[in-house]
Structure formats: C-alpha cells, structure tokens
Write the structure tokens for this entry.
Amino acid sequence: MASEKNKNTFWTEGFGSILIAVLVALTLRWSLLEAFVIPSESMLPTLLVHDHIFVNKIIYGVRWPFTKKWITKFSRPKRGEVIVFRYPENPSEYYIKRVVGIPGDRIFYEKGDLYINDILASKTIPKGRVKAEFDWLNKNSSNSSGQDFSFFTHWEENIDGRPHSILLKNQQRNFSYGPYEVPKGHYFMMGDNRDNSQDSRFWREEKRFVPEENLIGRALTVWLSCKKTLPLISFLCDPLELRWKRFFHMIK
C-alpha cells in the first residue's frame, strides 16, 4: 500500500512530474511551436530587431525527432508567407525570410520590382492604418546598423493576394537579379528590407534555393518585443524598453 502511494506521489509531486513537464515541453517545441528572436533588420518593417516570435512548426507536417525526414506532410509553403528555415550554406544557422518563389516559378528582380512568372508583383504607397503603423515602427525600431529611414520608402507589396510591407532605398536602383528557375522541392526567399537583406538573390548558385527539408515553420506572432536588451544578459529584454504595442502582433 505504501509502495503504491509512493509510486503515485513520484509521478504527481516528485521527480516524475518534472520529467513529464520536460517531455511535454520538448514535444511541443519539436512538433508544434518554437520561439525565436529576430537578430537583424532584414525583415523590416514586418519584423523588428528583438522581436520574440512564435513559429508554427506543424503547419507543413511532422518530422521524425532530431532528423530532417518527414513523417507526414500537411501542406507546403505559399508565396507571401514568412518562413523560418535552416540557412542552405550553413544549416546550423536559422534565417527568416518571405517566400517569393515556389517550385516551378521564374523569379526576376529589377530596380526594386519583383516579377513572378513574368508578372509584376504590384506595390503601392500605403495609406491610412498601414502607414500609421509603419510610422510607429519607425519611431520604435531598434536601429542598430545606423540606418537613416528618411532615405527609404515604405511600400505595400501584394503577392497572390497577400499584402505586406517592404522597404526600398530612395536612390535609383540599377541592379537586377535573375531570372531564376525555382527547382522542385525548393523555395526562393527574400527579406522585406529589400536593399538590406542577404537572401536567395545573393547566396551561392548551388545554395541559392532553400530545400524543403530545411523548413522549420511559418512565423505566427510576436509575443514579446523590446528596443533594448539587458547589458549583461543580451538575450533578455530590458523591462524598461518594452514595445507594448508589438505584443501578440500577428505576422503578415
């Protein structure tokens, strides 16, 4: 009787309960949600430096633990989605970019204009709520690289009915990239801060496209954000520098 009671206590109040909690947390992180922190300005104005985000890992399928092999697939990334993935040139690094090309697409980028299958992705100067939101982001962003946003224009781009914000430098852009043919099982990625993003336009030819096995998941929401982190603990937000308006901001 006492032995049975001790056994029950072990699983409800002792080390066993801690073990269960750890296993549940690891299972959620492996298959459902994982937290990431934005380290750079390549996704401005959609994502700011020190945005803490949740990534939906199960949306595309389920993998065998600690491998890149899929148990089952539910869907595939769509154009316009913001994705976390393993960097093709160094899979130990995680990147976050927007999908602009899916398998079979022909991507061409010229003077700030994006062409998908020879069709121009429309972009307009945002007005109203979107512009007001960007003005707030401009004032509350952590501009670690010293960028002067007066030299940039905020645009609203539309890919397959998915409107999102991008930044382009104001000066004349004479650069062109492509055309690139996206191979089967791969994706073409670009940052929203188009003139300040290392993405598929610049990676080595043999690593230009992100293979499906490198996908981690789709960016879901910002759950915490701050302009500065603590001086001695750089991964923790300074509670005096929180961006309250960013909390639970859905990522588009």
